[in-house]
Amino acid sequence: MSEVFAVYGASGCGRSLMPVAAKQLNSLGNMSQIIFIDDALTQDSSVNGYVAMNYERFKSLEHDNKFVLIAIASSSIRQVIADRLLKDDISLWTVQGATTLIMDEVSIGAGAALSPFVTIAANVTIGKCFHANLYSYVEHDCIVGDYVTFAPRVSCNGNIHIHDHAYIGAGAVIKQGTPDKPLVIGKGAIVGMGAVVTKDVPAGAVVVGNPARPLLKQ
Questions:
Q1: Catalytic-role residue among 140, 161, 163, 165
Q2: Which of these CATH numbers, 2.60.120.340, 3.30.420.40, 3.30.565.10, 2.160.10.10, describes 94-208?
Q3: Is residue 140 annotated as part of the catalytic site, yes or no?
Q4: Which residues form the signal peptide (predicted)?
């Protein structure tokens, strides 16, 4: 049974994740081809030594099974692509760095991109297509929704609930909640770079600073 693997997106995010993905396949003894998908291409090309092609060309490849990691920063675009893959009977692929640490009783949905030095602590539930960049962590008893993005060095402490499509900026720190009152980051909320979140963030809000406060529109 033949397989082919792909990283969807050949920009910075995809190029950073490709060696992680290739090393994962190699560590499993899987010699299947791995390629980039780039919808801007009209013909096959090469990116960092890997074959790159558009989605329609990838879809036409004659393999029994196809697996795709969506390496796109925008969570809304990730969802559009994930829905397209489902429709075309192509599987989401989860990739994690060799130095990623995952503890006990952790559930992670399909399509996660877990960069090197990411830690997922015990009793954590995470939805599909989660992106956790370098040196980020999710501490114990957290619930993370679908299409959530962590930039590098996000500190997500225990008993935090993060809803779908939230974006947490580089170096942000989220204060620990409690079992009876988890701290909540609402759907589609954006936490700015270096923000220190000490209380709930409403859905769709943008918060910045220390302590984090809503960004005032000019």
A1: 140
A2: 2.160.10.10
A3: yes
A4: none
